[in-house]
């Protein structure tokens, strides 16, 4: 080391040398650990994808709804070669504007008509959780659900299938509770999420019936356009296509690629509809009431107003000896 001077250290005059200080390099900033115990974050996208797939499978296994299902119509009168399915849609149970007498009438037809079942295309209860519908509830939503559960319990295996409509779906949007759990408590039939394919077996015959609460292609000029779009885009093999939601009533047949197709708009029980009037949709809903008829001994189907269908079935039962 290089001596650069000295200084006196006591009264006797003793001196001590002073040397040039050693060079100490600065510590690089990268080597200074400011937060030595900070948690290390490890993201592995492959692991994340694997976990999401695992959770999706867990949720899927717990789903109540399905995309396709088969229903064997109970033939109370086996010698009667007919079955009848009552198209039940947009009952809006619990709404002040809904005709509950009409709903009850149709349900009573199901219980008193042989070889029959109920096919529901949605908005079974009103569940008015949107906009001014809050103020149009004769029953609170939870009581509407209890009422529906009791209907499902009573009808048992005559309740062939149900589609979840947009009104019950508001439960999921507002609270994360899926409305199909209301049906699952008592439902023996099939529950479809918005749309689905019902394979309806009537005796020796099987009919492919596409059901949906709503779909794109709506038209006031051609009320069956939406049914045609559903057949073309989703269910090309369907013979019968029923779509609810718009509270429109009607049925029609056409021949497509050598196969007869039938389109049904089942109507509603919500015949007094302030929302529809205010928004220029319609003066009132068209009352529910379409019955689909099926032969059990050969492949044939048709539709008619419900009252005519009930009368037809009772007349045929008499002819069959019942």
Explain the layout of strands and helices.
Blueprint: E1 3-8, E2 15-19, H1 45-61, E3 68-72, E4 82-88, H2 100-112, E5 116-120, H3 141-155, E6 159-163, H4 166-175, H5 180-184, E7 190-192, E8 195-202, E9 205-212, H6 225-233, E10 240-243, E11 249-256, E12 259-266, H7 274-278, E13 290-295, E14 301-305, H8 306-319
Parallel strand pairs: 3-8, 4-5, 5-6, 6-7, 9-10, 10-12
Antiparallel strand pairs: 1-2, 4-13, 8-9, 11-12, 13-14
Protein architecture, described:
- The protein has 322 residues and is α/β, with parallel strands linked by helices.
- It has one domain (64-319): 4-Layer Sandwich (Purple Acid Phosphatase, chain A, domain 2), CATH 3.60.21.10.
- The protein has helices at residues 45-61, 100-112, 141-155, 166-175, 180-184, 225-233, 274-278, 306-319, and strands at residues 3-8, 15-19, 68-72, 82-88, 116-120, 159-163, 190-192, 195-202, 205-212, 240-243, 249-256, 259-266, 290-295, 301-305.
- The strands form three sheets. A six-stranded mixed β-sheet has the order 3-8-9-10-12-11, covered by helices on one side.
- The longest helix has 17 residues, at 45-61.
- The chain is elongated and about 145 Å long.
């Amino acid at each position: 080391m290089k001596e650069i001077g000295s200084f006196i250290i006591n009264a006797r005059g003793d001196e001590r040398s002073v040397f040039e200080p050693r060079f100490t390099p600065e510590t690089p900033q990268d080597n200074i650990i400011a937060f030595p115990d900070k948690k290390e974050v490890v993201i592995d996208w492959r692991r994340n994808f694997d976990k999401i797939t695992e959770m999706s499978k867990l949720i899927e296994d717990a789903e109540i709804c399905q995309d396709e299902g088969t229903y064997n119509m109970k033939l109370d009168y086996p010698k009667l070669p007919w079955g009848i399915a009552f198209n039940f849609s947009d009952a809006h149970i619990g709404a002040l504007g809904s005709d509950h007498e009409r709903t009850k009438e149709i349900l009573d037809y199901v219980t008193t008509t042989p070889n029959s079942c109920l096919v529901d295309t949605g908005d079974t209860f009103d569940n008015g959780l949107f906009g001014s519908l809050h103020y149009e509830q004769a029953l609170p939503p939870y009581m509407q659900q209890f009422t529906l559960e009791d209907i499902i319990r009573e009808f048992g295996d005559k309740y062939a299938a149900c589609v979840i409509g947009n009104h019950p779906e508001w439960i999921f949007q507002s609270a994360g509770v899926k409305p199909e759990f209301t049906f699952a408590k008592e439902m023996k039939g099939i529950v479809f999420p918005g749309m689905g394919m019902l394979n309806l077996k009537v005796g020796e015959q099987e009919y492919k019936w596409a059901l949906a609460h709503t779909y794109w292609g709506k038209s006031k000029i051609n009320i069956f356009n939406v049914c045609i779009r559903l057949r073309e885009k989703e269910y090309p093999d369907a013979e019968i296509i029923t779509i609810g939601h718009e509270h429109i009533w009607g049925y029609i047949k056409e021949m497509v690629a050598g196969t007869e197709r039938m389109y049904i708009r089942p109507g509603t029980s919500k015949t007094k509809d302030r929302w529809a009037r205010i928004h220029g949709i319609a003066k009132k809903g068209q009352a529910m009431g379409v019955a689909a008829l099926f032969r059990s001994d050969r492949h044939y189907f048709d539709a008619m107003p419900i009252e005519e269908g009930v009368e037809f079935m009772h007349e045929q039962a008499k002819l069959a000896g019942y």
